[in-house]
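Before surveying the methods themselves, it helps to consider a single example record, giving the amino acid sequence and backbone structure tokens:
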Amino acid sequence: MAGIFGLSGSAALIYQVAWQRILALHSGVGIYSVAMIVAAFMAGLGIGSYWGGLKASRFGASRSLLWFAGIELAVGAFATISTPFYYDLLGSHAGALYSSLGRAGVVHFVALLLPTCLMGMSLPFLVQAAVHDVRFACQTIGVLYGINILGAALGALLAPWVLIRSFGIDGAIWFGAATNIAAGLLSLLLWATRGAQPDQPAPETPPQPAKRQPGHPASRPFASWLLLYTLSGFFALALEILWFRIIDVGVRSTAFTFGSVLAIYLLGLGLGCVFGGRFAVRVRSPLRAFLACQTLLLIYSGAVILLIVHLPTSTPGYATLVDYWKGADIFALGSDWNWSQFILLYLAFPVALYGPPTVLMGLSFAVLQKAVHDDRQTTGRKVGFLQTGNILGNVAGSLAIGLVLMGSLGTPDSLRLLLGAGLIFPFLSLLWAGRDGVTLLSGAMLAGLVFIWPSSNQFWSRLHGSDPEQAAFAEDASGLMAITPALDEGGALRVSMNGKWQSWLPFGGIHSELGAVASILHPEPKDICIIGLGSGDTAWAAACRPQTERVVVYEICAAEQKLLAQIAPVVPDLASFLKDRRIHILAEDGRQSLAQNPALYDVIEADALRPTSAYAGNIYSIEFFKLCASRLKPGGLMCQWGSTPRVYRTFREAFPHVVELPGRKILIGSNDPIPLDRDRWAASLNPQVRAYLGPAIVPGMEDCLSMTRPMAPDTAADRNILTDLFPRDEFVTPGP
């Protein structure tokens, strides 16, 4: 049974990755949109766990196993139609439903309700089928749930590394469907080989547990354990979000990062469940053990942050990590196979950050089962209700951190607040289980961590290899923005988002050229749209012509504008850009806003983004390029960084007329012919425009104008292009 449940867990994680990706195309990849999708997914799991708990207690082992098989087959069947339902039907024919965040949240919830409810129901029914001796329920349930989580860890690795990379998002979903159907069929086979023996009807009133001495810790009512596991779920998801923000910044993530580090999180949790069951059988005070696990995982979580900040930078191993943080390079996971760097960034760092706490989370799950189960017939019901409470805590924790605390406090101070709130665990241990020296000591340690906590500037400066006095940071739920000295650029400032170098100050280089070239080529660029703010240089350069009346800039990370405003007094061009009344900066997902807003533009510019960044495929796909084409006025131009051969090929498929700047890898497309009128272009680069751009940029612009030519024909035999459902460049798919 455990192996079958592992298949189920693997499929569930694949669906979560794939469905979230598809639904985010409709409502945007901003933090609030993604939070709504995740909350809808988890809410469905919680509802399913509750109903599964109610229903499972009515059946014996045989019928429960049959129900589990039916659930797995039903989930697999839904998955086979999920892509046309989520992508084609909702995306193409119900786009108006995503016009506001509230409406989008309701649509996500309704769209995900059926499959997630079915997934949530699976654990209670399988527990009801598997537990035969209540004395060992904690071990049986721990192994079942642990193997399910280990299967999810495998799914987290398979989704980016194999399935989406090789077969696309739709192919990944079909693999998940096949996995669910296999789990269902194997369950049916197991049911048939056991013999379909009739179950004894469940009593109308569940038998009462044996009475214990009033002072025994396990004598707490079930409602107390439900409350504790709900609190545990709150802290678990809140910590997960904060850990992943730290990892995202520390490793300078690619599209492979989330699945890789999530697998480590799930691996620790799964191992804690599997091996915790044997430990829990021998636990004499489940209450004290559960609360101790919660307290210790918080102590570790705080101590490792202090270690990151205060550990000497010359420490072996750690010194290599600090050197990486100081530089501008990104370890390109997926295409770079420097194994020593891979082990340091993607094994040692995440394991040190959250390995022990996740094992303690799994251990506490097994201890919880030891405390609550005293009747075999009620095991499914109790597991279902406990999972419901835990998932509600998960949702509350993710929303509290993602939508409130990270925006107001930032990651380090949000973690500090969690540590302070975590004092409730040693307090409850003293209140319910009695005074104990170890509990008093652990509570004092947790309080001490809160007292000596480093500042946000101290922490983020270390992860950027910078002096806290010379660095500036701004953070919200959508990302962390940093401006730090570029140590190798002679006084320049490096602008980074989530640890990844985006651009620099003062303005100049490829970003400025990307912004200015289409404005100069267009005869009358009145309305311009820029997707991505960066350091501001692309949008600033795009506004170089006096004819320009409006520049709309879409930027997902709202903290970016806030940080640029802080540094503007020492960067004259940036200051004038932010004061320019023609500039309108909106904290929105650019693709989703273009889809919802019918406004037309003379120039649309997608600021340069590394193609392997998470969700980069959304603005390199042919669907996105065609969307931009539909938002151009007659004679309008779209400018795009041609980062890879596939981008060239896809861009050419989307626009009937394309010119390129081969030395700069800049592509300019239009629905109408683009006249190669170099005399007019030279006239557009008049003294007023030259004065605006400045002597550091004008020579580069002159080179751009001289190099502009019709795009060379595509001679590749394999005409793979980039699509929403197969973002090949983002996942470094082999081939041309």
